[in-house]
């Protein structure tokens, strides 16, 4: 698992090991770079929700190394199972991890600000935005792209999730339940978490 | 007082929303259209459409627009509507934010405990299924065009899909660049 070597001053007495040299422990994490990165994520993702995951993954895991891929997936689960919006939850966690509560505030606001500005401009000056023929053309190109962008990281995530011949059925069952039977993802998360807990107890 | 109402309503929507933006839309509709009559159903539909086609989280987009419209309809000037929009957006964030920070604190402290590693051991495979399901459910007529209506749009969509998939998967093209490229392609082709 990831380590809890937060850079902010918190009495983490149980974690006193020297900072390991590996991904997910963050390179530069100034308030400025946090703000810019999350403003970029908020400002350049169309479609919301899962459509923001590939951009977040590229920026946060691959480029900035603020989270390891495993931790990224863990926070995805947490963000999905707590109230609130994916991207904001993810931003809050990373901000908090590196700069404490203020960091969380900065990252959450950075994610929201491009949205607020864009919507205000449209509401004030450009109410016919949706009827614009060029906007519609752009979106006819963007929509299939977003679907591909959501699907693409599944494969690398599957590797990181250590999917093997014993547990391959977990994602398959989840996927079928949600996509074919309309089961809420929350139930899948609860069942999977409970299953893992029970399995851990039995194995011991 | 419209501002206090906005704050209360959107705080409530924020904390009772599980499952992200799309789930939030029905909550917002219920509060904003049915209960508080801040706008009509067709206005709300426009807001949803705009929220989906502007950058950022859909829940934030929708809250901003709804806050703006509600204050305008209550007869306030535009600067007040801008304040209302910002207030609605922040109201939707703050409670989930506090909750998330508490969860983060717990996770970062106990990330090595057996309890946490057990649970995430099965949750990680599950989230792969969740994301795959999200992608599959988006493979719809709305996103790819209806092949019975226009074969051309459908085939172009399939090509864009494959191009985007291969581009990000094999050639590691940045997703933002990919979105811009495909938007440009749509503009040129259609």
Helix content of chain B: over 70%
**How large is the count of helical segments of chain A?**
8
Give the fraction of residues assigned to helices of chain A: 55-70%
The main pleated sheet of chain A reads as: none
State the secondary-structure class of chain A. Answer: mainly alpha
What features would you describe in this structure?
The complex is a heterodimer of chains A (204) and B (190). In chain A, helix 1 crosses helix 4 and helix 3 packs across helix 4. Helix content of chain A is 67%, strand content 0%. Chain A is an all-alpha fold and 204 residues long. Chain B folds into 2 domains: 105 residues, no CATH class; 79 residues. Chain B has 9 helices and no strands. At the A-B interface, helix 1, helix 2, helix 3, helix 4 and helix 5 of A face helix 2, helix 3, helix 4, helix 5 and helix 6 of B.
Mind sketching the topology for me?
The complex is a heterodimer of chains A (204) and B (190).
Chain A: H1 31-43, H2 53-63, H3 69-81, H4 86-125, H5 133-151, H6 153-160, H7 169-181, H8 185-203
Helix pairs in contact in A: 1-4, 3-4
Chain B: H1 2-15, H2 20-35, H3 41-52, H4 58-73, H5 78-109, H6 114-138, H7 141-144, H8 151-169, H9 175-189
């Amino acid at each position: 698992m990831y380590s809890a070597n937060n850079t902010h001053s918190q009495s983490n007495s149980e974690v006193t090991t020297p900072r390991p040299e590996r991904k997910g422990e963050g390179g530069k994490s100034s308030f400025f770079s946090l703000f810019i990165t999350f403003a970029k994520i908020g400002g350049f993702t169309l479609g919301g929700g899962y459509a923001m995951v590939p951009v977040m993954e590229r920026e946060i895991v691959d480029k900035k190394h603020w989270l390891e891929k495993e931790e990224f997936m863990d926070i995805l689960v947490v963000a999905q199972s707590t109230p609130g919006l994916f991207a904001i939850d993810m931003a809050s966690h990373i901000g908090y991890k590196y700069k404490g509560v203020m960091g969380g505030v900065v990252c959450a606001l950075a994610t929201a600000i491009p949205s607020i500005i864009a919507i205000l401009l449209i509401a004030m000056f450009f109410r016919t935005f949706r009827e614009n023929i060029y906007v519609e053309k752009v979106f006819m190109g963007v929509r299939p792209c977003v679907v591909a962008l959501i699907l693409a990281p599944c494969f690398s995530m599957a590797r990181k999730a250590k999917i093997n011949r014993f547990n391959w059925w977990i994602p398959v069952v989840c996927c079928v339940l949600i996509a074919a039977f309309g089961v809420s993802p929350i139930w899948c998360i609860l069942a999977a978490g409970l299953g893992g807990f029970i399995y851990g107890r039995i194995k011991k | 007082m419209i501002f206090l109402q906005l704050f209360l309503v959107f705080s409530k929507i924020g904390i009772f929303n599980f499952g992200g933006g799309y789930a939030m839309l029905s909550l917002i509709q219920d509060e904003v259209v049915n209960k508080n009559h801040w706008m009509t159903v067709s206005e709300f539909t426009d807001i949803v459409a705009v929220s989906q086609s502007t950058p950022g989280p859909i829940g934030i987009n929708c809250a901003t627009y709804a806050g703006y419209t509600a204050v305008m309809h209550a007869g306030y000037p535009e600067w007040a509507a801008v304040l209302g929009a910002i207030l609605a957006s922040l109201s939707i964030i703050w409670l989930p934010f506090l909750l998330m920070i508490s969860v983060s604190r717990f996770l970062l402290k106990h990330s090595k405990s057996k309890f946490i590693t057990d649970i995430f051991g099965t949750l990680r495979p599950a989230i792969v299924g969740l994301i795959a399901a999200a992608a599959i459910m988006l493979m719809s007529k709305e996103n790819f065009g209806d092949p019975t209506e226009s074969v051309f749009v459908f085939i172009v969509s399939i090509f864009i899909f494959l191009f985007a998939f291969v581009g990000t998967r094999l050639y590691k093209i940045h997703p933002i660049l990919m979105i811009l490229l495909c938007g440009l392609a749509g503009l040129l082709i259609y």
